[in-house]
Amino acid sequence: MFLGTSLKDTLSTPDRSPFTALTTDFRTTFVPISPKAILRTIVLDPVESTEPERLPLVMIPGFGGGFVQYYKNLDHLHTNRRVYAFDLPGFGRSTRISFSSDAEKAEEEFVAAIEKWREEMGLEEFIFLGHSLGAFLSCAYAMKYPSRVRHLILVDPWGFPVYANHQGDKKMPFWAVLATSFLTVFNPLAPVRWAGPFGPLLMNRFRPDLARKFSEPFMDYVYHCNAQNPTGETAFFYMQIPFGWARRPMLERLGSDLDTRIPMTFLHGVRSWLDNSSGEKVRECRPDSYTDVHYVRRAGHHVHAEQPQMFNKIVKEACARVDESRDSPADCRTRADSMPAS
Predict the structure, then answer these.
(1) What is the reported pLDDT for 233?
(2) Sequence-separated (6 or more) residues with CB below 8 Å from residue 124
(3) CA gap 137, 118 in Å, rounded
């Protein structure tokens, strides 16, 4: 199943460049989830062996990209545990499967794909990390398969608050305001495909912040991911109203649908354009559960790229708490590793 032992040998040209600074060899594979669908996956073995073997960390990306978005983090998170990351169906280099136009069914199809991936990889239980849309889907997965998820790590999650016509004191960036209006009719990244060879230029024009947070080669990678058939993007279109909110918001479901024994760690960017009060609201609706909330200063929506050292530190600490069974309700609090106003 595995296609090689070197990351540099198995990545395509657009997504190889962001990884040139990494020092660790990876295994990559395309994991079959049906006769016609595969999920592109990367695996990092632990540097140090432990007895017993520690629970693996599984990471899924947010909207519009693949696991390459974690290129500043993967090298630092597999010291003593195996780390997996994969491209969601309809995104990255995974198969562009068709999704239902019904929000609930589309969510179920994402969850079913994740469960099939787990079965194929032979994982019994794991720590599950997701960013943005990936955080929403990891939470949905934990609701349906609670015995598989030992701890949820949600990074600036999308789709938690109930829809509102404003975000309080938050000012949405220009690109988000434009996208919100556009998304009432079209898929989010349709202009990139319409622009053809000028797509990368268009992305840099409207999202110069991504190039600053990640790198110029990363922007080339994002373009190539999203120039393809946009089935995952279309599913997201049906799941949102408009860009910043979900048709089926998580905060309406967590209290009753998520097993209270599943601990949760939130990482919010203080500067995020999304509502970053979700962690505290989840704590309120799950008073008898572990909910640890971090507000990372000098970070926006892409906490893992903007403050990678702090992100890596918090994630490793959350994993260590799992190893040592220190993720009970009595252990959680709001952290300001973080918390000033910027």
Answers:
(1) 87
(2) 148
(3) 14
